Every structure is written in C-alpha cells, then in structure tokens.
Give the backbone structure.
Amino acid sequence: MTSLARSYPRQRGILGGSAETIVNLTAILTIIGIVMGGAYLLVGKSAATAEWQALDTLVTSTKTLYNGELYTTLANSDLITNKLTGNLRVNAANGTITNNFGAAIVAASATCNGVAGACFTITSNSVPTADCISILKQIPVTGYLSVQVGTAAAITAAAGGFPVSVANAEASCNGAGNSNTIVLTAQ
C-alpha cells in the first residue's frame, strides 16, 4: 500500500535557518556599522556647530584668562600664546586665527558702559548665511552681552534678545555674497 501523504521539503524561515547564514548576516551588519561609524567620525559635526563651539570656547577661555581684569590689551596673540584657540587654525608668526570657513577671527578689547576694556569682542568673518543663522540660534541666554552681524542692529541680552529667534537670525544673517561677519561681545 502506498502512502497518500506527499513529502515536501522543510521550510527553513526567512534566513534559511542555517547557523552559517546567521553568522554571515551578523558579519555584514557589523561591517555596515563600522563603515557608518567611520563616516560619522569623518564628517563629524556641521560646520556651524563646529564654528559655534570654537567661538564659545574663545569667549569662555578669554574670560578665564583675564579673570576680572580689564581686556585693554586683548589681542589674538594672547589667545595663541595661551593656547586658547582649540581646533582653529593658527599662524603664530603673524598672530592670525582662522575660522572653519577659511577667514579671520579677531579678538579685541571693547568699551562697555563708558569703560574702555570692560568687555571684548570676538569677530568671525565670511560666515555663510545658513551657518550664520545656526550659530546665532546656539547663543545661550547668559554669557554674552550682544551679537551683531554686519550692519544689522545688534541683538542684545539687555533687551531680551537671547536666545535669538529664527526671525532675528534670518534678518541679521543676510550678508551679500553669502558672507556674514559675526561680532560677539562678552564681559
């Protein structure tokens, strides 16, 4: 008597069910993870975030360096000599600091409330418009007196300008040729 039951090959599931297939899939996913992680490290942060962090570090480091003294003698050479420039490019021979967009950053003493040297400025030149907007949006509520972009009106802490609104950032960052000069003032 013959059996009416028919023999079908056993289904193994979506991965085929073999240990070898699972090991191969794990290896492929591991390689993809390593490649993606390496790409993130190479590309890293956006240019605007890197620039903001560099500017904020310069401001914080300058405050620490002068520690309550007047900033009357502040110059780029102070930041370079005291190694306060972080990852920014520096030419110590001519006292220049270069931002992430290939243009100059300048530290200088400023007059606040009628007192020469009571505050200081950090100026970053040739900042693209989209990056300028992003940088302004990252300025914290405290720690800065004002920010001015080009000839636009200064945005001040005293007037409640921080954090900077999207509308104010867009109105300020409208430099011709996609090039903006950001001047941060701190005390």
